[in-house]
Design goal:
By secondary structure, the protein is mainly alpha-helical. It has 13 helices and no strands. The chain has one domain. 73% of the residues lie in helices and 0% in strands. Helix 1 packs antiparallel against helix 2 and helix 8 runs antiparallel to helix 12.
C-alpha cells in the first residue's frame, strides 16, 4: 500500500470519529445546561475547554453563550476543527483514496457530507441541536457500518480502525483531563453534588460525564449496581475506558505490523 493511501485512510477515519465525538460533547453540554437554573455559560465553557479550542474561541467571542459555542464547534469557517470542516477534509481524503474504498463506504461518506452541508448552511439554534446531533451520530454509524460490512480485512481496513481508535483514545483522555481545569467542578463534582442533594445514587450524576464517550450504559453496568464511593468514580472511569480504547488501537497496529514480521525486519 502506498503511504499516501494509508495516510488518507487513517486521517479520514480520525476526522469522522472526531466529528462524532464533537457531537457527543455538545450533547453532554446541552444536557448539563438544561439542568441549570441560572446562566449556563460555565457548562459551555467546559465543552470548549474539553475540545481544546478555548484560545481560538476566546479570540472570536467574548462570552460562552450557547448559540456561539454550538455554531463555533459545528460550522464556523474560522474553526478548522468544526464538524463541517472536518467532514469536508474527510471527504477529500475519501476521494483521494477512492480506489482503496468500496462503493458503500464512499457513498456513505459523501452522503454524510452532503446532508451536513445542507443542515449547517444556516446558523444552528439551540432548539435544533438535539436533532442535528442525532443526524451526525446516525450518519457516522452508517459510514462505520459500510466499513465493517463491505471492506476486506486487509491493510486498508486496519488503517481505518487504527485512526478510529487512536482518535477515540485522544478524545477519552481529553474528557478525563478536564478535571485539571476549573470546568471539572461543573462537569463532574457539581453534577455529583446535585444528585446527592436530591437523594439519588451519586454515581448517576457522574455517569453524565460519560455521555461524550458513549459509555453511559457501560459505566452504569460496571459501577452503579451498588453504591460506589464517589471518590473512586473518576479513577474507575480511567481504568474502565482507557485500557479498552488502548487495547483496540494496539490490536489494529498488530494487524498491520505482526510481531513476527517486525522481528524478521529487525
Amino acid at each position: 500500500m502506498l503511504g499516501r493511501t494509508a495516510g488518507g485512510i487513517f486521517w479520514m477515519f480520525r476526522y469522522l470519529e472526531r466529528c462524532e465525538n464533537m457531537a457527543r460533547l455538545l450533547e453532554a453540554g446541552h444536557r448539563m445546561a438544561l439542568t441549570r437554573n441560572t446562566g449556563s455559560d460555565e457548562e459551555w465553557r467546559s465543552v470548549v475547554t474539553t475540545a481544546g479550542l478555548q484560545s481560538g474561541y476566546e479570540g472570536r467571542y467574548d462570552d460562552y453563550a450557547a448559540a456561539h459555542v454550538v455554531n463555533f464547534l459545528l460550522r464556523d469557517k474560522t474553526n478548522p476543527t468544526s464538524v463541517l470542516a472536518m467532514l469536508e477534509t474527510a471527504r477529500h481524503n475519501a476521494r483521494m483514496t477512492r480506489t482503496a474504498l468500496t462503493r458503500e463506504v464512499w457513498e456513505a461518506t459523501n452522503i454524510f457530507w452532503m446532508r451536513m452541508k445542507e443542515a449547517l448552511a444556516r446558523p444552528v439554534r439551540e432548539t435544533d441541536l438535539p436533532g442535528l446531533i442525532a443526524m451526525i451520530r446516525q450518519q457516522s454509524a452508517q459510514v462505520r457500518g459500510a466499513l465493517h460490512g463491505s471492506m476486506l480485512r486487509i491493510d486498508v481496513y486496519n488503517f481505518a480502525r487504527l485512526g478510529t481508535f487512536l482518535e477515540r483514545a485522544d478524545s477519552t483522555a481529553r474528557i478525563l483531563d478536564v478535571k485539571y481545569y476549573a470546568a471539572a467542578v461543573l462537569v463532574l463534582c457539581r453534577l455529583f453534588a446535585r444528585q446527592c442533594a436530591v437523594g439519588d445514587n451519586p454515581a448517576l450524576g457522574l455517569c453524565r460525564a460519560c455521555v461524550p464517550m458513549a459509555q453511559c450504559r457501560g459505566h452504569a453496568a460496571r459501577w452503579c449496581g451498588g453504591v460506589p464511593d464517589p471518590r473512586r468514580t473518576l479513577p474507575a472511569l480511567t481504568r474502565f475506558l482507557l485500557p479498552e480504547v488502548a487495547r483496540q488501537s494496539l490490536l489494529s497496529g498488530e494487524r498491520l505490523w505482526p510481531p513476527h514480521a517486525v522481528a524478521r525486519s529487525g
